[in-house]
């Protein structure tokens, strides 16, 4: 009977892994380079890819000279791209042609690594839970880990965060193995084996992203609660063993910490400074991290899930569940650190999700075991709650849907090509990058791919348009949101995105603006005033068979304008000079009879009367992300 039960539990675990992996493969091709767009729409992917190619495993070279993160993901990415090269990745021509196809295949290899890691994290949570509660609790906890919105979305990116979280989840699983179940007795050999494996996975996590080092707190707390204060020498010995395993694995997977120590310390110090000083204007003027990350959790994990998870964790502490209390101690310290930081990316909450999911699953499992009508009702509401409010499966489904559809940057470019007259001038408010509509195959090249002079120079090659990045005093003197773009260059159209407006929008109209940002906000204010005086915002309607007032606007509810959730759905605006409009009130998008560009700029779209959505009254400031 036990063998059958074990096989059944294993089957459920493999089913959770397969389901979570399948979901991640839907939309995994979002934003990859193509013949029409040669660069990834994710701002970090090509930088990570470039550094990963500096690792040469066959030559024993594991020091990429880049240590903002640990080296493990870069090494895995390099192995994955070498495998892709051996099994059909696109070849680059001798003249460099077709490089985008090779990068597409390499980026996909890295995304597959993230997808598998996300599914494995769900399996780890499931296995932790079935040791200490019922099957239903294990299944629901695994799904809470594997199917929540932000974690699913980032599992389709070639970035470090999901893999680091996966290793944390497996560290916590081995912490759960330290705690006896049923009639089991405390066995020092079992504890030592579990402590070593927990330390190994903590080291793997730290070697992917440095915050994983905090997992030693979960290991130490769990050991202390299992053995008690009367056996402190044994606790100390086991913690020392786990710490040695963690540090040994960390150095093994990030050997630059020893072999390239000067550069390692420089990059590590940069990361510490960066998180404590901020990310430009992106998070300026926002709530403190302790508050800000609550909204990140609600949107990225799920509001209902958060409540049930906290209930389970609270009950677990009350019932002295060491396997929950240990990871919870880690989570509290992690939250303290990210709460104090000035950089507040959504992905910073990922290390908390395994702990929350374990709390959620344990709450359901224990309530189901209770069997009372009240507890049955609790289970029903908890299961229904995984759909979430402000997050949950509804958001996961919508985000997945968007990642299978044409991106709004490609849609805006198609709209421009169809409706903006040949030879028109189009102004950009900042340097072109991932947020810029696909007016040219190379326009979304980032700093990792192209020098700024070359990036701006290629604007002259955009077919059929004169694209302007205003820099009259030289490239080194260029300014974002320069009012002279309007007053002097006077382009026929102006394009910008929510990524270029975020930060400015939050600070606009605030009192006591940080002096380091005040000049930029004042310039933005002057720009917006001129823009609303001399330009009219285009209302993109009946485009591609879908009625939408502004490209990307419908994404705000699900991404809440959060910076690293809006990667897949930024907002894009296009404005037309008022003196080019032949009239107002037209509700359709005109085109000439043969479907090409119209010959004259005769009101290409209807002007909205209220300015951009959620704008400041009388100013028309566009909304931006957080």
Q: Which geometry do the CA atoms define? A: globular
Strand content: under 5%
Based on secondary structure, the structural category is: mainly alpha
Mean pLDDT: 87
Sheet bearing the most strands, described?
Answer: 6 strands, mixed
- What Rg do the Cα atoms give? 26 Å
Provide a concise account of the structure shown.
The chain is mainly α. The chain contains 25 helices and 6 strands.
List the helices and strands and how they pair.
Elements: H1 2-25, H2 45-52, H3 72-86, H4 99-132, H5 135-146, H6 149-154, H7 161-177, H8 188-206, H9 215-227, H10 232-253, H11 256-259, H12 261-277, H13 289-300, H14 303-318, H15 322-340, H16 353-370, H17 373-385, H18 393-403, H19 408-419, E1 425-428, H20 452-457, E2 466-469, H21 484-489, E3 493-497, H22 498-501, H23 504-507, H24 515-534, E4 535-539, H25 556-559, E5 572-577, E6 606-607
Parallel strand pairs: 1-2, 1-3
Antiparallel strand pairs: 3-5, 4-5, 4-6
Helix pairs in contact: 1-4, 1-5, 2-3, 3-4, 4-5, 4-7, 4-16, 5-16, 7-8, 7-9, 7-15, 8-9, 8-10, 9-10, 9-15, 13-15, 14-16, 16-17
